[in-house]
Amino acid sequence: AAQAFVGGLTYKVMSTFTLPFQPGDYITVKGVSGRVTQLNTFFTKVKTHSGQTVSLPTYSLWNEAIATCQKKGQICEVTFYLSPAITSAQSIVAESTLRDTVHSSAYIEPSGPVNIYYTQRPNAIELKATATVTAAEHSAAFSSEVTQQFLAFTRQKQIPLAHVASGVCAQ
Asked: How far apart are CA 78 and CA 159, in angstroms?
């Protein structure tokens, strides 16, 4: 226990100067691959691609070779506002098309989730898609691609919009 404490404390002090990875980075270490969700003096938590959270003793990583340490993308959202006069059939087709458009994007992380959300607003129905892009620098291209394709679809199928779409990527 004392070794873990001293090792963790030493690692914490040293990592403030040369941090090899940080929360949000994707790493492969000790046979575990995933996104670092928490890094503290005693444990480093990694969420694997299957969704499991693995806790690794931080001090044990001090002498480990980190196979990969790269910053993956970020969660992006693209929001559209449909007219409240939209029919249920149009709503279903719009949701399906938005999901397909996001899934077909070359900019998303294939193993990441794609979520579609509906929210009733006073003068519109908000239809929002979220996905993880492969790299932060692809955020604008992803938003633009999805927006262009979805707006072309709504024009073709005459699905009424409340107003133009907006895309936002979380930092």
From this structure: 17
Euclidean distance between CA atoms 133 and 142, whole angstroms: 7
Task: State the Rg of the chain over Cα.
Answer: 21
- Coil, helix or strand at residue 100: helix
| pLDDT of the residue at 52 | 86
- In one-letter notation, the amino acid at residue 63 is N
Greatest Cα-to-Cα distance within the chain, rounded to the nearest angstrom:
68
**Residue 68 and residue 53 in contact, taking contact as beta carbons nearer than 8 Å:** no
The CA distance from 48 to 62, in Å, is: 20
Provide the token pair at 133.
């892009």
pLDDT at 139: 77
The arithmetic mean of pLDDT across residues 67-91, rounded, is 79
Q: What is the mean pLDDT of residues 52-72?
A: 67
CA-wise closest residue to 128 among 157, 156, 94, 84: 94
Tokens representing residue 169 in the block: 């990527």
Judge whether residue 1 has pLDDT over 90: no
